[in-house]
Design a protein that fits this description.
mainly alpha, Phasin_subfam-3, Phasin, Phasin family protein
Length: 142
């Protein structure tokens, strides 16, 4: 009866440890995901603000068109604005790609740590289980 209780406790402890080992990387990845979503959201809001500012600026300039000279100036500013917009879009796309690559690298790092810990733990358990089996064999040889 006492052995059954001890075995049951050992099994529950092993289950608890395995569950903890399983959820630790998931918790880290979830925290990283939330942090990354926050960064991306902040970045996108700032980008939206910049694009909106560009658009509003062009609309204000359009309301000031009164004659041929202001049409010419407005047309020139449109070309400049499109050039700036293209540059901004490329910069933003690069920034988003960099953020994504950083996130991917962090997830891979967490998964590698988890894999490494699991293999180390398995190796330790294998060694621990092999030692008691080796003692009776040595005793039998005497």
């Amino acid at each position: 009866m006492i052995q059954d209780k001890a075995m049951q406790d050992k099994m529950m402890n092993a289950f608890t440890e395995q569950t903890k080992n399983l959820y630790t990387p998931m918790r880290k990845i979830n925290a990283l995901l939330v942090e990354n979503m926050e960064k991306m959201t902040d970045f996108q809001l700032e980008a939206l603000k910049a694009y909106s500012h560009m658009g509003l600026s062009q609309m204000k300039q359009a309301t000031e068109v009164k004659d041929a000279d202001t049409v010419r100036d407005y047309s020139a500013s449109q070309a400049e604005m499109m050039s700036n917009l293209s540059k901004k879009i490329l910069e933003d796309a690069k920034t988003m790609a960099d953020m994504s690559m950083e996130f991917k690298a962090e997830v891979e790092k967490i998964l590698e740590q988890s894999r490494s810990q699991a293999f180390n733990k398995a190796a330790e358990e294998t060694k621990a289980e092999a030692k008691p089996a080796a003692k009776p064999a040595a005793a039998a040889a005497k």
